[in-house]
Amino acid sequence: MDVNAASASSSSSSSSCATQETEDRRLGLHLPFDDGHERAPLLLPPTKTMDAADEKGERPDLSEDTAHQISVDPWYQVGFVLITGVNSAYVLGYSGSIMVPLGWIGGTCGLLLAAAISMYANALLARLHEVGGKRHIRYRDLAGHIYGRKIYALTWALQYVNLFMINTGFIILAGQALKATYALFSDDGALKLPYCIAISGFTCALFAFGIPYLSALRIWLGFSTLFSLIYIVITFVLSLRDGITAPARDYSIPGSHGTRIFTTIGAVADLVFAYNTGMLPEIQATIRPPVVKNMEKALWFQFTAGSLPLYAVTFMGYWAYGSATSSYLLNNVKGPVWIKATANMSAFLQTVIALHIFASPMYEFLDTKYGSGHGGPFAFHNVVFRVLVRGGYLTVNTLVAAVLPFLGDFMSLTGALSTFPLTFVLANHMYLMVKRHKLSAIQKSWHWLNVIGFTGLAVAAAVAAIRLIMLDSSTYHFFADL
Questions:
Q1: Which residues, other chains included, contact 247 with Cβ-Cβ below 8 Å and sequence gap of 6+?
Q2: CA-based angle 369:211:136, to the nearest 5?
Q3: Which UniProt keyword terms apply here (predicted)?
Q4: Parallel, antiparallel, or unpaired for β 134-135 and 130-131?
Q5: Distance CA 138, CA 214 (A)
Q6: Beta partners for 61?
Q7: Radius of gyration of the chain (CA)
Q8: Cα(162)–Cα(155) distance, rounded to whole angstroms?
Q9: How far apart are CA 482 and CA 427, in angstroms?
């Protein structure tokens, strides 16, 4: 049923109104809000699109109120938000976590294919920003609108597991960068990884207190880009120098045949983790109208120019060190101490900013549901609320990071549990549900193939990641100094 058309004709008869209400409830259009009441969406006439309505100043009804700022950012600012996630300090681990288990052919083809598939899936999701006349500013709202309350709750759980795992990984990464910096100047081992993780979590919390919402990053995105370029350029140049002077490297894939199966599956999960945020609707909510057109510009920016630094440092690191490449590339490179320290501290600072992006949906939920909307973001009571609530959330992240500091395993598990379902399975199936009357049989078959195929990959990747975590947990004790 065409929801907009049904809404437009609902005034013609009472029976059609009853039919429309039944259909709306089936698709989740009347979800309960925070106050326990139900509100019917304000639907646009069926001849208007989201972009056309935006350009004329006619806004579709938002799926829920929000305490955060939306619809204000230019497309290039959103593009830099996406690029900050893609070129976070996680890129320093892709040579070891992707290229080593897959080799030159598998790793190169995998990175390019994952980019193409991710661009396609994210574009599908971007086009679902407005469904049934409602602009959906959260992933869970979009899923709930299409499927109903149960899938709303499941999507909410998947997304926040995804973001929690990513945030935990960022804190581990920041701790590794701090420890690597300390080790350059002292070899006494006094500053262990758990201590560095605690310092990193505290620094991330301080930053979170001062940045009320995602759009407020603005100038910090410029700093993030600068920090990314510093550690990527330094790592690239030092790896190039090491590769030129080093003897022949071993590029064979390590491990026995049985082990390679699991490491290959884990590497595939890392491939999709590299490009995807799992929070595209939340990022898209901040962009100026026309929303879909501007979001597509930001995505093209991310997957073209924005991905080049990732390729450069990943391929150069593997070329220089082969199968001996570590999970944190700056541990491999040789060079002046001050240059390596600059790279490590840049990775640390960029990680603090990047974590805020991936924590923002959790912050938005907490601020909207429990915070006060009065007095502005820097009113005393709002600042205190952020200190208590965000500080508590990041304390839990930091504790988990210190207990299980296995960065590569976290990347694999995050890709398996959340990135596959959210970015590929749900995006394709939601597109099928919304556009089912406009798709040909071949197009429907293509989307179903994506749904089934990526569901299978998600299950396999989750098994492989859990196995890796169990192996590492048996090898290293809790609060290990890796």
A1: none
A2: 45
A3: Amino-acid transport, Membrane, Transmembrane, Transmembrane helix, Transport
A4: antiparallel
A5: 13
A6: 134
A7: 23
A8: 10
A9: 37
- How far is residue 425 from each of residues 73, 274, 447, measured CA to CA in Å? 29, 17, 9
CB burial of residue 351 (10 Å; 0-12, 13-18, 19+) = buried
- Cβ within 8 Å of residue 245, ≥6 positions away: none
**Contact call for residues 192 and 180 (beta carbons, < 8 A):** no
- Residue 404 pLDDT grade (very low, low, confident, very high; cuts 50, 70, 90): confident
Which single residue is written with the structure tokens 């002046």? Answer: 336
User: What is the end-to-end Cα distance of the chain in Å, rounded?
Assistant: 56
* Residue 193, token pair as written in the block: 């990884």
| DSSP per-residue string spanning 201-241 | HHHHHHHHHH--SGGGGTHHHHHHHHHHHHHHHHHHHHHHH
Q: Are 160 and 153 in contact (CB under 8 A)?
A: no
pLDDT digits (tens, 9 = 90+) for 430-466: 999 998 888 899 999 999 999 999 999 888 888 887 8
For residues 67 and 368, the answer to whether their CB atoms sit within 8 Å is: yes
* pLDDT score of 280 more than 70: yes
Long-range contacts formed by 434-443: CB under 8 A, 24+ apart:
434/128, 434/131, 434/146, 437/2
Lowest mean pLDDT among 117-131, 267-281, 284-298, 429-443: 267-281
300 vs 368, more confident: 300
Strands 61-62 and 134-135: parallel
Say which DSSP state 97 is in. Answer: I
Lowest mean pLDDT among 123-137, 173-187, 222-236, 280-294: 123-137
Which tokens belong to 374? Answer: 């009065």
CA-CA distance, 97 to 273, in Å (whole number)? 11
Token reading at 438: 């406009």
All domains of the chain in start order, with CATH? 67-475 (1.20.1740.10)
Asked whether 91 and 275 are in contact (CB, 8 A), the reply is no
**Where do we find the tokens 């990175």?**
111
User: How do residues 310-356 score in pLDDT, each as one tens digit?
Assistant: 999 999 999 999 999 988 899 999 999 999 999 999 999 999 999 99
**Distances, alpha carbon 384 to alpha carbons 165, 206, 210, 358, in Å:** 26, 12, 11, 22
Q: Is the peptide bond before 290 cis (omega within 30 degrees of 0)?
A: yes
Predicted confidence band of residue 9 (pLDDT cuts 50, 70, 90): very low
Tokens at 165, concatenated: 């795992």
Could you give the C-alpha distances from 95 to 80, 260, 289, 310, 448, in angstroms and in order?
Answer: 23, 16, 38, 10, 33
